[in-house]
């Protein structure tokens, strides 16, 4: 940046809207730089210093700087008390305002969220609050020594940190409002208490209240102005040939602001937002200023020099140096979550870190260290995986605690989103993945584990109480682990012919505690005792898995029973580890002082783990074993890809993404960072396929037709993929000797036989056809075969590869019926296996396989086609019973009966009708075939279903209705009504029962009328008119069909009139009710006519006398006399009724 010699930087501040970085320090140094990114360059970190401006105005050491994001202003201060506000004019930063109190050092400058007010705090307690234009709002001398200041997000409260470590809050007028309790200072651990000096003050290094950065109003106005100028330049000038229409575009009433490329992420209510960091490594994180349960963070042996919130408020970066060393150049940056959990760290041993800041994306940081400004790349641990050609990753949705799991198939560009709540972790394997989310509905926290395929379909699930900090999975089971325990889940895959299923020893899923499984063991000179260590990494093999321990060492445990069988000496600390394809070698990434991430390769030799290679001075960002070659490992030194064969390292091209596949000398990576900018709209551009240099060299030689040189290259650098390329090329060029040599190198016996077979083919065209078939170019091979009049060879080719549709297309016009049937049979079985039932039934019909055709139609629920088939088959067909049973299970009685009768099985037809409650049809079949009396069967069935409960009675009612016995059904409906009336059920329920019975009686009468209408010869008229065969109960039902329904209808109407104070209408309705004493309680009727004596005794109610209220005392008198002589009243109630009558008539008559 061209800093003066011996200059020291003290801070760095990154503008989140315009991407400017302000940094400054000793000798009045102040710089504004800008790290630009070339959008045309596919590399995500292609950067250049496009702005590098020195700002002159400070002579003393610049200590503070802050950005006004909304209005794009920069405010700085130095040790002399000078404050300068800088503004951007014509792409250059210049002074706008200067303030020099020259009495005390400025300890804090902060703008409120919208950038309209600024607060300046001096060490002597003076506070100035002003406006953007420079006007002073208030000024106050506080009787405390200040160390920092900060605005609350609402802009109405100012928070001050004092020199002795206290935190206090003032309102917008400068009045004291609140003292915040700093619980982090009230208690401390033993180490920090011993390290604390006597009378040492608690020095506040940083005090910041996180709030999201607003989009700059100034930049939006500038962008709007530029767009208007561009529109003016587009306006045509001069005289145009056609001037009927205006060439000026219609102005927009509202210009939509540019959308933020970062997805919106909701802030959980329980996430801390306010941070106070002290120099001695103590921090307090609070959810609000009144939080009584803050999060306390203690970083051991660290002196904090700076702390900054990440742009999304989810993490905090903390810079400092080790207290155990006198050299301040032993610096580090620790990353913690907003909840106080340590998630990562970075060490630097050459310079002293004095300032840190985040880029707006949260993926880069600027670090001020001595006279340098470092740009660091932040690598978050994204939750993602790969299933074959599908990328699986998790992202936070706009709904709180909701996460989307994206399944993106980049080959066919298809995506599937699966939504889960409280997502925790995921891991992937070749064909499936494990997704884990938290569930705490029952009060106890559990974790729900799902096994999903590449479209998000759940295949199996399980529950565990082990927190899924580490997850790994293979083809048979998954391992979930936290620091002190692990869970082994043996899941079930929906397949039966898997190769792994043959070697899989069934195990029992269960949870295991590390302390119970481990025993005392020596690793070198250090002895580890059970229960004093924790898991820091895991990886999985075929029948075992490995656990790395925080203090060093690797455990090997069985997947079948979770028992630890071996212990390997591996030095700590281990960040991650992976096994190769045949589980004979282990790659371990360690955290060492010289290089943050160093990779070491080990090999299993008997019961020992021996180191075979160590990649020194390599900062490993990602690594992946070859899927087929157990000796090859691809890893990234930052963005530079290297290939290691466990003996040497070869440098390759750059890879800008996370590696998820390494096979056939091709490394495939995905840029997760770009994916998560628009997580719901992934594109293929994020996938990068990098061919290894050896494969590129051989491909170039083959393209240049230098086959011998390519063979020499492969001899010097042997690899199966290189020989495969040579073999393919040699066969295509008819270089059979070289092709045979390549197949021998590959140990491919089938390839050698292919070369021999092609050599024996005399026709050159048929040779080319065989070569095209070998290269899987089947269409080209077919065309050559047909051109050579060898359709049989084309059919044979497609039969070998199992392409039955192509075989069908070739033989569908063939006169050979047997060949056509065979092709139809293959096509039918193909569709049957793929559960395409309609197509399978079509081809089974073409090959005359009636049994499988019926099975396909039944499985596909194609009962219309099945009915057509049943009518087309002969009567004595053996498949009639099968189709009849299928129709019966689906409730299709007519079709089932037709099938049974065609097969001459009337007993099965009768049983079908009875099972489906089609009693009329059953009676017809019984009469036609001289079978047993259906009436008796119906009565017996009705007796079995009739019971004391309403449910059984209703079932019997439905039975009679379906059988056409409407009168018997009406009797049951009336019986249900009478039973419910005795149980004091609601009146509307009783009315519905009586209405149902009456409707059934009307159905009975309607059926009789229909029979009379169709009886042309009056053969049954006399029988129908004669009711002598009816029981007395049935006759009463016919005579009083609607009387019960009318009774309760009038009862409900009378009550409605009384409640709505329509007394006269209520009286008339109650008089009508006196004709329905058979269905109603007379006491209820006459109480409504005369009044309720209980209400009369209550003086708060008017006399509830319907008749008296309308002056009908004669009716009232008769009603009262009837009530006095009712048998349902006891002697006490009669006396009360007499007293009520005396009181009523003495008062009103």
Automatic annotation (TrEMBL):
A Pfam family matched by this chain, by name?
TPR_IFT80_172
- Give the record's keywords alphabetically: Cell projection, Cilium, Coiled coil, Cytoplasm, Repeat, WD repeat
Q: Which GO terms describe its biological process?
A: intraciliary retrograde transport; non-motile cilium assembly; protein localization to cilium
Q: Which residues form a coiled coil?
A: 180-235
PROSITE patterns to which the protein is assigned, alphabetical: WD_REPEATS_2
Every copy of the IFT80/172/WDR35 TPR domain together lies at 722-804
Instruction: Give residue ranges of the WD repeats.
Output: 55-88
The segment(s) forming the IFT121-like TPR repeats domain are 1039-1148
This protein's GO cellular component annotations are:
cytoplasm; intraciliary transport particle A; non-motile cilium
Q: Where in the cell is it found?
A: Cell projection, Cilium; Cytoplasm
Q: Which Gene3D superfamilies match?
A: 1.25.40.470, YVTN repeat-like/Quinoprotein amine dehydrogenase (2.130.10.10)
User: InterPro entries attached here?
Assistant: Beta-prop_IFT121_2nd, Beta-prop_IFT121_TULP_N, Ift122/121, TPR-like_helical_dom_sf, TPR_IFT121, TPR_IFT80_172_dom, TPR_WDR35, WD40/YVTN_repeat-like_dom_sf
- The residues covered by the IFT121 second beta-propeller domain are 384-687
Report residue spans for region: Disordered. 246-267
Composition-biased stretches (Basic and acidic residues): 250-261
Q: Which residues form the IFT121/TULP4 N-terminal domain?
A: 3-213
Q: Where does the sequence pass through the membrane?
A: none
Q: What is this protein called?
A: WD_REPEATS_REGION domain-containing protein
State the organism of origin: Caenorhabditis tropicalis
């Amino acid at each position: 940046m061209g800093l003066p010699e011996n200059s020291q930087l003290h801070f760095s501040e990154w503008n989140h809207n315009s991407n400017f970085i302000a940094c400054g320090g000793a000798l009045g140094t102040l710089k504004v730089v800008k790290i630009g990114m070339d959008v045309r360059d596919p590399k995500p970190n292609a950067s250049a210093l496009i702005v590098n401006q020195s700002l002159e105005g400070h002579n003393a050491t610049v200590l503070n700087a802050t950005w006004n994001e909304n209005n794009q202003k920069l405010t700085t201060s130095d040790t002399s008390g000078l404050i300068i506000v800088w503004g951007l004019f014509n792409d250059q930063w210049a002074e706008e305002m200067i303030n020099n109190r020259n009495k005390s050092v400025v300890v804090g400058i902060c703008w409120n969220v919208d950038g309209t007010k600024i607060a300046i705090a001096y060490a002597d307690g003076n506070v100035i609050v002003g406006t953007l234009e420079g006007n002073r709002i208030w000024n106050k001398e506080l009787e405390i020594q200040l160390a920092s200041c900060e605005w609350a997000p609402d802009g109405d409260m100012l928070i001050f940190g004092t020199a002795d470590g206290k935190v206090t809050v003032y309102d917008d007028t400068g009045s004291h409002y609140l003292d915040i309790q700093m619980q982090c200072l009230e208690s401390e651990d033993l180490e920090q208490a011993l390290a604390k000096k006597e009378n040492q003050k608690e020095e506040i290094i940083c005090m910041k209240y996180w709030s999201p950065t607003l989009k700059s109003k100034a930049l939006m106005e500038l962008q709007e102005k530029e767009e208007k100028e561009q529109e003016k330049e587009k306006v045509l000038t001069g005289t145009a040939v056609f001037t009927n229409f205006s060439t000026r575009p219609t102005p927009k009433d509202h210009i939509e602001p540019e959308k933020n490329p970062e997805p919106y992420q909701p802030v959980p209510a329980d996430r801390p937002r306010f941070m106070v960091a002290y120099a001695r490594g103590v921090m307090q994180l609070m959810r609000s200023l009144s939080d009584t349960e803050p999060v306390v963070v203690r970083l051991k042996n660290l002196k904090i020099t700076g702390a900054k919130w990440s742009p999304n408020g989810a993490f905090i970066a903390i810079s400092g140096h080790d207290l155990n060393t006198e050299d301040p150049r032993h610096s580090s940056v620790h990353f913690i979550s907003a909840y106080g959990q340590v998630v990562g760290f970075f060490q630097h041993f050459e310079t002293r870190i004095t300032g840190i800041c985040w880029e707006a994306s949260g993926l880069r940081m600027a670090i001020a260290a001595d006279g340098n400004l470092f740009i660091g790349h932040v690598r978050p641990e994204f939750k993602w995986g790969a299933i074959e050609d599908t990328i699986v990753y998790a992202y936070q949705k706009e709904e709180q605690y909701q996460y989307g799991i994206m399944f993106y198939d980049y080959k066919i560009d298809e995506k599937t989103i699966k939504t889960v709540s409280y997502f925790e972790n995921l891991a992937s394997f070749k064909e499936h993945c494990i997704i884990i989310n938290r569930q705490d509905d029952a009060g106890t926290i559990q974790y729900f584990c799902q096994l999903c395929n590449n479209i998000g379909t759940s295949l199996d699930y399980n529950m565990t109480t082990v927190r899924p900090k580490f997850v790994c999975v293979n083809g048979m089971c998954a391992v979930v682990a936290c620091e002190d325990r692990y869970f082994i889940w043996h899941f079930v895959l929906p397949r039966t012919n898997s190769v792994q299923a043959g070697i899989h020893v069934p195990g029992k899923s269960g949870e295991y505690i590390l302390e119970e499984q481990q025993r005392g063991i020596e690793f070198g000179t250090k002895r580890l005792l059970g229960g004093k260590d924790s898991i820091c990494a895991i990886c999985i093999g075929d029948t075992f898995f490995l656990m790395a321990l925080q203090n060093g060492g690797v455990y090997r445990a069985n997947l079948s029973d979770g028992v630890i069988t071996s212990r390997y000496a591996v030095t700590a600390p281990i960040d991650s580890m992976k096994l190769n394809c045949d589980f004979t070698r282990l790659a371990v990434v360690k955290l060492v002082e010289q290089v943050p991430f160093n990779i070491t390769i080990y090999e299993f030799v008997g019961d020992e783990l021996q180191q075979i290679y160590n990649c020194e001075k390599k900062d490993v960002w990602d690594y992946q074993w070859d899927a087929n070659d157990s000796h090859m490992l691809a890893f990234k030194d930052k963005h530079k890809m290297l290939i290691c064969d466990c003996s040497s390292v070869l440098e390759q091209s750059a890879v800008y993404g996370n590696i998820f596949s390494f096979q056939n000398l091709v490394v495939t990576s995905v840029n997760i960072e770009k994916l998560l900018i628009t997580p719901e709209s992934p594109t293929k551009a994020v996938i990068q396929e990098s061919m290894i240099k050896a494969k590129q060299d051989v491909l170039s030689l083959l393209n240049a037709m230098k086959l011998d040189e390519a063979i020499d290259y492969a001899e010097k650098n042997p690899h199966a993929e290189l020989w495969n390329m040579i073999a393919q090329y040699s066969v295509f060029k008819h270089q059979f000797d070289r092709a045979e040599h390549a197949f021998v190198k590959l140990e491919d016996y089938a390839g050698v036989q292919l070369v021999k077979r092609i050599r024996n083919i005399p026709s050159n065209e048929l040779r080319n056809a065989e070569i095209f078939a070998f290269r899987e170019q089947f269409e080209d091979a077919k065309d050559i075969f047909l051109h050579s009049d060898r359709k049989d060879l084309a059919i044979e080719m497609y039969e070998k590869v199992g392409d039955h549709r192509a075989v069908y297309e070739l033989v569908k016009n063939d006169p050979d019926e047997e060949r056509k049937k065979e092709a139809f049979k293959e096509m039918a079985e193909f569709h049957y296996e793929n559960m395409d039932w309609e197509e399978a039934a079509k081809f089974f019909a073409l090959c005359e396989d009636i049994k499988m055709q019926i099975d396909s139609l039944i499985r596909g629920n194609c009962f219309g086609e099945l009915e057509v088939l049943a009518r087309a088959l002969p009567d004595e067909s053996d498949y009639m019973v099968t189709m009849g049973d299928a129709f019966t299970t689906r409730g299709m009685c007519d079709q089932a009966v037709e099938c049974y009768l065609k097969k001459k099985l009337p007993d099965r037809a009768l049983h079908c009708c009875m099972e489906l409650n089609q009693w009329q049809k059953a009676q017809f079949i019984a009469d036609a075939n001289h079978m047993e009396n259906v009436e008796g069967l119906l009565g017996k069935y009705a007796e079995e279903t009739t019971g004391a409960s309403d449910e059984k009675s209703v079932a019997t009612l439905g039975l009679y209705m379906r059988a056409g016995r409407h009168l018997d059904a009406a009797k049951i409906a009336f019986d249900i009504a009478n039973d419910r009336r005795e149980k004091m059920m609601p009146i509307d329920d009783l009315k519905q029962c009586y209405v149902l019975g009456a409707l059934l009686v009307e159905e009975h009468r309607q059926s009789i009328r229909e029979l009379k209408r169709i009886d042309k010869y009056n053969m049954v008229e006399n029988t129908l008119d004669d009711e002598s065969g009816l029981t007395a109960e049935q006759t009463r039902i016919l005579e009083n069909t609607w009387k019960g329904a009318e009774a309760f209808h009038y009862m409900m109407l009378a009550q409605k009139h009384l409640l709505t104070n329509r007394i006269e209408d209520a009286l008339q309705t109650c008089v009508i009710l006196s004709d329905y004493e058979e269905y109603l309680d007379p006491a209820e009727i006459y109480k409504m006519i005369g009044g309720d004596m209980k209400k009369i005794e209550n003086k708060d109610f008017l006399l509830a006398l319907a008749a008296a209220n309308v002056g009908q005392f004669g009716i009232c008198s008769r009603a009262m006399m009837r009530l006095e002589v009712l048998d349902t009243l006891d002697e006490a109630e009669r006396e009360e009724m007499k007293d009520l009558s005396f009181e009523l008539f003495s008062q009103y008559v």
